[in-house]
Amino acid sequence: KGLHEEMSIPLYFGWFLLPTIQEKVRCTSMDFLKTLDTLEAFKKHMTDFAGGAEKEVDLEQYFKAKGNLHCTTKFCDYGRAQGAKEYAEKPVVNELYGSAFELSLTALFVTPRTVGARVSLSEEQLVLWPADAEKEAEAAVPGAASLALGSRAHVTLGCAEGVQPVQTGLDLLEILVLQQEGQQGELVEEMELGTLAYYGKGRWLLSLREPICVPACFSSGYR
Ligand code: A2P
Questions:
Q1: Looking at residue 46, what DSSP letter applies?
Q2: Which residues, at least 6 apart from 175, have a Cβ–Cβ distance to it below 8 Å?
């Protein structure tokens, strides 16, 4: 009998970064925000973040951290979300529940709503990815449904006041749709961590030179 037939269905399933690595990722994210803040290119587009006002924005204050760092695979809403029960009952979900993985963070992105890290899933990790994760986002992000499986995978690093974490994956998809349409983004700067590009409307993507590999445990989250 599967583990989740005996337990209530969680709020969400996902990979949870180990505590020591969470600190490291948070530091990298903070350093990035600190640097971005000081770039002339960022200041030029600052009004994206200030609701059109010409005021200074301190990105480190602008985003609020949201609990444990993790990469959601399936948001279940305690069974209320579509496909929640099916996902919780999948043999592979039960088999791999509690196992250790290594996630590869390949980019950091910032929008006026969220800051996050893109996760590039391996074949082995994609077996835990719901087939409709990108399609579900189509209404919010036109074009998302045609992106590769796993495109939405991310770690939410922070949200602006009043913004829910679900927005982070949508913001990532928005950037990936633009890329798929052939937009490279405006190359802004070679930074120590990688290449920074601007995609308009306050959307910034830092493609990491070296992926950040983080140990993570496949498990579930409650509140
Ligand atoms: P994310 O994975 O981007 O961090 P909340 O705290 O808002 O209830 O959400 C719990 C977790 O589930 C968060 O990690 C959140 O976003 C994710 N999440 C919330 N709603 C959805 C949704 N509709 N689709 C996918 N993921 C969601």
A1: G
A2: 109, 185, 199, 203, 205
Residue of 22, 72, 134 to mutate, ligand 1, most atoms within 8 A of C-beta = 72
ipTM over 0.95 threshold: yes
Residues 6+ apart with CB under 8 A from 112: 48, 49, 160, 201, 202
170 touches ligand 1 (CB under 6 Å): no
Tell whether ligand 1 has an atom less than 6 A from the beta carbon of residue 11.
yes
Rounded Cα–Cα distance for residues 106 and 126 (Å): 16
**Whether 206 contacts 175, CB under 8 Å:** no
3-state secondary structure of 43: helix
* pTM of the predicted model as reported, rounded to 2 decimal places: 0.95
Other residues' Cβ atoms within 10 Å of the Cβ of residue 79: 13
> Which single residue is written with the structure tokens 């992106």?
147
pLDDT digits 0-9 by tens, 208-219: 999 999 999 999
What number does the ligand 1 atom closest to the CA of 167 have? 3
Length of the chain: 223
70 catalytically annotated: yes
SS3 assignment for 68-137: CCEEEEEECHHHCCCCHHHHHHCHHHHHHCCCEEEEEEEEEEECCCEEEEEECCCHHHHCCCCCCCCHHH
pLDDT at site 185: 93
Question: Quick check: is 4 catalytic?
Answer: no
